[in-house]
Amino acid sequence: MLVGLPKEIKNHEYRVGLTPASVRELTTHGHQVLVQRGAGADIGLSDAQYEAAGATLAADVATVFAQADMIVKVKEPQPQECAMLRPGQILYTYLHLAPDPEQAAALIKSGAVCIAYETITGPGGGLPLLAPMSEVAGRMAVQAGAAHLEKSKGGLGILLGGVPGVPAAHVVIIGAGVVGTHALQMAVGMGARVTVLDKSVDRLRQLDLVFGNRINTVYSSAHSVEEAVLDADLVIGGVLIPGAAAPKLVTRSMISRMKKGAVVVDVAIDQGGCFETSHATTHTEPTFMVDGVVHYCVANMPGAVARTSTFALNNATIAHAVALADKGWKQALRDDPHLKNGLNVANGHVTYEAVAKALGYTYVNADTLLA
Ligand SMILES: NC(=O)C1=CN([C@@H]2O[C@H](COP(=O)(O)OP(=O)(O)OC[C@H]3O[C@@H](n4cnc5c(N)ncnc54)[C@H](O)[C@@H]3O)[C@@H](O)[C@H]2O)C=CC1
Ligand SMILES: CC(=O)C(=O)O
Ligand SMILES: [Mg+2]
């Protein structure tokens, strides 16, 4: 198979879908890899390293899309990328379609086979291709929150860990999955007072066993979210219902009653966000204010630490990329129900139920396309 690697074009997105090591995995399996010149240059992955791994270089992105049987990316395709996809071509990347009707329409129109990293499941449960970026974003959420609590950024002017004689900040984390757990680790490490909420009591139980009385675990309800948020200095939103639009757990009314200068970091923004007042922002302009509350809603947070993130992402994506290249998409999906869960759009149909439901399309079971 001819695998294509374009350079990412989203705002301040320096990650790359394949490292030279991943290219070598593909070429040693007998595949060809066409790399857009400079695809990894911003994070120190040179064209010479890609060539040494067996890749061929393409001068421009149009050549990559025109020739490749499978495109491997990081972020959801931007409109000009969607326009270059063709029927039967495989697109393997993050998609986050539920809150993105324009992208969904473009992918349906393209006829391409679109496999979303974020809905591929793992044999042990969870979402193993989302997990590494959630680890990064969860850790970064505390860094971003701490920075924006500074006065010059619109924040309250408080230090997360306090100092002897002055109390620490109160950090509230909604969603105790991968983002929530990694945010928790950093917030506890920086000396904050931490409350974590989740609908899963089992998840809270696990965290309680690890962190004991260094954190407060709270069952998530409209009442407990409101109580926690109104007392918070920093709120981190990391809830997820896989594939679906995020539930709006923090309402506009709650935001209006928060402390002026408090900060919210809506990590779940790529699924539409869990704060009613959120809208996606970019690394160039990461925040906006609503009722005196700083909102940080960057949809590609790991892009800021692109080198770390690229290696972490490739660790999780390369095995399925090789399977897709070796077997073709139909056989690869027939052989692996977890990879099949990644199929969101194919041959003009929406094949992921939560996406179809969120956007009002007819759901077509992937099995009907694999027969
Ligand atoms: N903005 C960015 O750059 C990035 C965003 N993300 C996003 O972060 C979100 C979270 O991802 P993960 O932590 O990997 O998901 P996860 O599945 O590990 O955790 C989600 C947690 O939310 C909980 N939850 C669901 N409904 C809830 C409710 N009503 N109240 C409280 N908790 C609730 C679940 O029980 C689960 O523990 C996803 O939308 C993901 O796409 C991930 C990486 C980067
Ligand atoms: C998960 C995701 O959307 C990101 O890493 O940018
Ligand atoms: Mg989008």
Descriptive notes:
This protein has 371 residues and is of the alpha/beta class. It has two domains: 2-120 and 306-370, Rossmann fold; 131-299, Rossmann fold, CATH 3.40.50. Helices cover 37% and strands 16% of the residues. It has 14 helices and 15 strands. The strands form two sheets. The chain has an eight-stranded mixed sheet with strand order 3-2-1-4-5-6-14-15, with helices on both faces. The protein has a seven-stranded mixed sheet with strand order 9-8-7-10-11-13-12, sandwiched between helices. Helix 4 (79-82) links the parallel strand 4 and strand 5. Helix 6 crosses helix 7. The protein is globular, with a radius of gyration of 21 Å. The mean pLDDT is 98. Bound molecules: 1,4-dihydronicotinamide adenine dinucleotide, pyruvic acid and magnesium ion.
Q: How is this structure best summarized?
A:
The protein has 371 residues and is of the alpha/beta class.
CATH superfamily of the largest domain: NAD(P)-binding Rossmann-like Domain
How far apart the termini lie comes to 22 Å
Strand order of the largest sheet: 3-2-1-4-5-6-14-15
Radius of gyration, in angstroms, nearest whole number: 21 Å
Summarize model confidence as the mean pLDDT: 98
Strand content: 15-25%
The residue fraction in helices comes out at 25-40%
Protein name: Alanine dehydrogenase
GO molecular function, one term: nucleotide binding
InterPro entries: Ala_DH, Ala_DH/PNT_CS2, AlaDH/PNT_N, AlaDH/PNT_NAD(H)-bd, NAD(P)-bd_dom_sf
Enzyme class: oxidoreductase
